[in-house]
Design a protein that fits this description.
It is a single chain. The protein is mostly helical and 218 residues long. It contains nine helices and no strands. It has one domain.
């Protein structure tokens, strides 16, 4: 399969994934009792990432397509995460617990605010180590957000997360449910792709190709 065909296929799959996330959320399939582990939500995060890894490892042509994508563009896309200020606002209004909203909100704001600079300045062999470090920081932010969101379910009414009965239940319903069921796994996959690309960089193979808006030769 050609890169163009893979491009159309992955675009369609991402659109279908987003549609499923919206539909399942509308049907309350991710909603769980605050006293129980949010397993449907966690599965929605883990399954897409696992399927990506399986496809990446088992198909050379798909792997070549993934590695041909522009690391600059994939990094700049992370700028959407500056919308993490919403978590801070919801915490301020007592809708989300601080144990989740504060690290998730500030982490996303940092990654979102630095994404454009990271993509434009660091997507180069000259800054390979810093570029990879930035990608790992982005992954760490997502992992902390998911972990703290899950942990908040187990902290009682007197705990920091459960103060005044506040829980992460709003994250299981629309519109917030789209973030963990679509945004988080997608952004994490983009980080993984950029790290895989950067690890293959060299001055000889990179050249001026990264300056193109379309593709990147690994």
């Amino acid at each position: 399969m050609t890169n163009a065909a893979y491009g159309k296929l992955t675009t369609g799959l991402i659109a279908a994934w987003f549609t499923f996330s919206l539909s399942a959320s509308a049907l309350h399939l991710f909603s769980t009792d605050p006293s129980r582990p949010p397993l449907p939500l966690l599965l929605a995060v883990v399954i897409p990432i696992s399927l990506f890894f399986l496809w990446y490892r088992s198909s050379r042509s798909f792997r070549d397509f993934v590695l041909s994508l522009s690391p600059r563009t994939l990094t700049i896309v992370q700028a959407w995460r500056i919308a993490g200020f919403v978590f801070l606002a919801l915490y301020a209004y007592g809708i989300l617990p601080g144990i989740f909203a504060l690290p998730a909100g500030w982490g996303d704001i940092f990654i979102g605010a630095t994404a454009f600079s990271a993509g434009m300045k660091l997507a180069s062999p000259s800054y390979k180590k810093i570029f990879i470090l930035w990608q790992w920081l982005g992954i760490a932010d997502l992992v902390v957000a998911v972990s703290s969101g899950a942990a908040a379910r187990f902290i009682g009414p007197q705990g920091f997360a459960g103060l005044n009965g506040i829980s992460t239940a709003p994250m299981t319903v629309l519109p917030l449910s789209v973030i963990p069921t679509f945004g988080v796994p997608l952004f994490l996959i983009l980080h993984i792709i950029c790290i895989a690309q950067a690890r293959r960089w060299s001055q000889q193979t990179f050249g001026g190709i990264a300056d193109r808006a379309g593709s990147f030769a690994a």
